[in-house]
Amino acid sequence: MLFKKLQYFFHYYKMDGKGTYTFPSETKYVGEMKNGMFHGKGVLHFPNGSKYDATWENGIAKQGKFTFADGLQYQEEDWDYCDGYDRCFYSERCNGLRPAGESQLTDRHPPLVIPDGCYDCGDGFYDPSSRVVTSYTGGFLRNADDAEHAWIVRTCRKAWNQGPY
């Protein structure tokens, strides 16, 4: 009897048509669905402002493009952004380099002030005591594992290293 009730529930409540589905991580899918899966045109919107616009087939992205929060579009081929030869920020690509002595430290100029005891890890602030990354607006993004913690502590800007800009 329970099996029949579950069958009815899943058959009746399958997501079909256009709609919005929000994951617990606050990632949001907006688009077409069929039989409870992403199917057709749809966009995944990530909490950090980036998005993945794709054509889906039975829950699998068949073709799509990823756009970072700052507007930079990822290219699978001929990607020359932030490689060994070009280390400028995307805003510098769009607006040009700043004059000597006014170098940019982040994609934003002036950069955001990092909260005490934290790091700027590129998509938000990292608090090493709680191991939590929050968005620049304060929303939860993720818990950092050991590898990400080590990378952030080794490479990212620190609150106690901020200087005048």
Automatic annotation (TrEMBL):
One of its GO terms (cellular component) is motile cilium. SMART domains: MORN (SM00698). It holds the Pfam family MORN. It is found in: Cell projection, Cilium, Flagellum. It comes from Sphaeramia orbicularis (orbiculate cardinalfish). Coiled coil: none annotated. The lineage of its organism: Eukaryota, Metazoa, Chordata, Craniata, Vertebrata. Keywords: Cell projection, Cilium, Flagellum, Repeat. This is MORN repeat-containing protein 5. The keyword Signal does not apply. InterPro entries: MORN (IPR003409), Morn5 (IPR042814).
